[in-house]
Write a structure and sequence with these properties.
This protein has 1 helix and 5 strands, in the order βββββα. The chain has 76 residues and is α+β, with helices and mostly antiparallel strands. It has one domain. It is elongated and about 45 Å long.
Length: 76
Amino acid sequence: MQSQKYRGYDVWGHAIVQENDGVHRPARYAASGTITRGGNGGKLIQASGVLGDFESEEDAQLAGLEWARAWVDAHD
C-alpha cells in the first residue's frame, strides 16, 4: 500500500495479489484506491472498486493513487 497527501486528503493505492498456480502464471495484482481525510484513521471519503489487473505490485499501487488523485480533482 502506498499513500500520500493530496490537496488536503490522504490518498491510498492498494495492490491485492491475485491467485496463481505458482508454476504457469506469475503473480498478478488487482489495483484499488481509497481517499480519506483527517489523518491516520481518518474519515473514509471514497473507495474504488477493482481498477484493473497489473503485473507488479507497484504498478497496481500507482494506479490506485492515480485514481484517487483524479477523484479528488473532480470532486473538490
